[in-house]
Write a structure and sequence with these properties.
Helix content is 0%, strand content 51%. It is globular and about 40 Å long. It contains no helices and eleven strands.
């Protein structure tokens, strides 16, 4: 089992930055792929970014060049640095762990999820 706890969400003006953290506990996550997803009101959950143990990453087109995912296996923590935030980035952001070690964008491939953290970007 893997338990995930997100933090770092909040209210920020457009153009600002936030850094989300996801702390994992339970079994080691070093071989897992870790992902960030988000869900805005009335919309489906969507892929944001993923990272595997080699450091390889995958990003949604909507966040490329603005968001950066990273991980610290020693601290069992994954980060999402979000820069140049836009009002359309407003959503609940979820951290997820995938066990096959692939950079999947499909939420169904991630069996472990955190509770989410709210990010609100004002215009």
């Amino acid at each position: 089992q893997v338990q995930l706890v997100e933090s770092g969400g909040g209210l920020v003006q457009a153009g600002g930055s936030l850094r989300l953290s996801c702390a994992a506990s339970g079994r080691t996550i070093s071989s897992h792929a870790m992902g960030w997803f988000r869900q805005a009101p009335g919309k489906e959950r969507e892929f944001v970014a993923a990272i595997i143990w080699t450091g390889n990453t995958n990003y949604a087109d909507s966040v490329k060049g603005r968001f950066t995912i990273s991980r610290d296996n020693a601290k069992k923590t994954v980060y999402l640095q979000m820069n140049s935030l836009k009002p359309e980035d407003t959503a609940v952001y979820y951290c997820a762990a995938e066990i096959a070690g692939s950079l999947s964008y499909n939420a169904l491939d991630y069996p472990y999820w955190g509770q989410g953290t709210q990010v609100t970007v004002s215009s």
